Amino acid sequence: MRTRLLTLCVMISLPLFAQRNSQIRVYPDRGTEEISRHIYGHFAEHLESCIYGGLWVGPDSDIPNTQGYRNDVLDALKKLQIPNLRWPGGCFADEYHWMDGIGPKENRPKMVNNNWGGTIEDNSFGTHEFLNLCKLLGCEPYISANVGSGTVEEMAKWVEYMTSKGDSPMARLRRQNRRDQAWKVKFIGVGNESWGCGGSMRPEYYADLYRRYATYCRNYDGNQLFKIASGASDYDYDWTEVLMKNVGGRMDGLSLHYYTVTGWEGSKGSATQFNAEDFYWTMGKCLEIEDVIRKHIHIMDQYDPQKKVTLMLDEWGTWWDEEPGTINGHLYQQNTLRDAFVAALSLNLFHKYTDRLKMTNIAQIVNVLQSMILTNGPQMVVTPSYHIFEMFKVHQDAIHLPLDLVCDIETVRDNRKVPMLSVSASKNKEGVIHLTLANIDLNQTNEVTLDLQSHKITTVNSRILTAASMNDHNTFENPELVKPTTFHGAKIEKGQLKINLPPKSIVVLEVK
Ligand code: AHR
């Protein structure tokens, strides 16, 4: 992407209601890589209300449900075309013993959820409940298995329990638990954050453990596992180097975690009370992931030039202070237009690395961190981030189109450079081009000229997500304050598109 560096001024001193201009040139015939649908993956951890009360209320609940899953949440999630769902953690995964979560509910032992508020986990949501949820959502399960406090035998038996069709001991146990057919499970994570909550290991030690555990994760009866090693946090390039060197082709995927967060100590800032400077800082921190991705990919390229090992960003998103009044350790946070921008900017840039980066999982799906949905008893609301995933789903499995972008770049707090426009383009199997654009500027419109070269533009349909204030968010009292509407600011002029992007707006264009 080519960008033009113009004025370097502090954002909040910019004149109100001025206008920016940008140019985009898309190359509709030069796309080679498909945007893996798994870039649009999700994550559900046993972090109290993500599972209990969020996805699952149990079949006896007064809240309308299908076999225990909330109907309102199911209906909303189905509209996102979710490709995969990672479970049961996160940090929880390395204390989870799957056998505690099968069989009659009354016999399932309870445990303390040490990572997340010390809540008592009753194991009423276990393997069957998760895999059946994936079936209802039409997504692929991604099992994150326990290395930190679990045995090789335990992991091996879990794989057998889920996927063996034959007369094996674990398949028999599954049948005793009233599930005859094996499930299809492709994605399996061998540990999570093994450098931290997953065992505080050194990369050399974890690399050897990975090799050992992964050996016994067998492919039963035609089920082909895709084995994912626990990867680095943010800027820990040494972890990636050691894993690539010592594990290499024994893994199919290597994970990476990156949160848009102010830091791990002290306050992370309010999810809803922030000013323009905070807003722009957030955009800068979010975009910094591009440099992080590039550096990890560079290391992977040295050891694996054929790109056989996939990079999986299986945790990302914003991390703010917990909502006042909510339970400490449950990571329940609100979600404003600012979070929608983080989702939009992130997805737009992930598309560029789809030859190596083939899966990402925003953290987390319901009631935790940058969630899609918030619930409170019987009430449910979808967040601005949800709307981005719904608007951007058109890119799933489409061919990523290269483009040139000329736009203003500003310097924000911490000397981060932020292009004022974010854009991505793709072409689907029917030849329809989709563009997703985000005008980051809080005050100025951006007059965009879009050149689609040989693509003859006949019709344009578009939707926009914006709000009166950057702090706007959906509440149970006002659930539709931030939602997409039809956009009328794109016009065909002399074979090009002129798009008048309002301040702080995110637009999806369908161009035929
Ligand atoms: O998503 C919340 C937590 O963040 C996960 O449990 C852990 O993997 C990460 O540190």
| Strand segment tally | 27
End-to-end C-alpha gap: 24 Å
Average pLDDT rating: 95
Multimeric organization: single chain
**Main sheet: which strands, in order across?**
2-5-8-9-10-11-12-13
Query: How is the main sheet built?
Result: 8 strands, parallel, barrel
Shape: globular
Question: Which small-molecule ligands are present, each listed once?
Answer: alpha-L-arabinofuranose
- Count the DSSP helices: 10
Helix content: 10-25%
Compute the gyration radius: what is it?
Answer: 23 Å
Strand content: 25-35%
Structure characterization notes:
The chain has 512 residues and is an alpha/beta fold. It contains ten helices and 27 strands. The strands form seven sheets. It has an eight-stranded parallel barrel, surrounded by six helices. A six-stranded antiparallel beta sheet has the order 16-20-21-27-23-24, covered by helices on one side. A hairpin with a 2-residue loop joins β25 and β26. α3 packs across α4, α6 runs parallel beside α8 and α7 runs parallel beside α9. The two termini are 24 Å apart. The N terminus is likely disordered. Bound molecules: alpha-L-arabinofuranose (AHR). Alpha-L-arabinofuranose (AHR) binds next to loops.
Short description:
With 512 residues, the chain is an alpha/beta fold.
Question: How is this fold's topology laid out?
Answer:
Elements: E1 19-26, E2 41-43, E3 65-66, E4 69-70, H1 71-78, E5 84-87, E6 111-113, E7 119-121, H2 127-137, E8 140-145, H3 152-163, H4 169-176, E9 187-190, H5 203-215, E10 226-233, H6 237-246, E11 253-260, H7 276-287, H8 289-303, E12 310-318, H9 337-350, E13 357-363, E14 373-376, E15 379-382, H10 384-392, E16 399-400, E17 403-406, E18 409-412, E19 416-419, E20 421-427, E21 433-439, E22 445-451, E23 460-465, E24 485-486, E25 490-493, E26 496-501, E27 505-511
Parallel strand pairs: 1-22, 2-5, 2-13, 5-8, 8-9, 9-10, 10-11, 11-12, 12-13
Antiparallel strand pairs: 1-17, 3-4, 6-7, 14-15, 16-20, 18-19, 20-21, 21-27, 22-26, 23-24, 23-27, 25-26
Alpha-L-arabinofuranose binds at residues 45, 89-91, 192-193, 315, 363-364, 369.
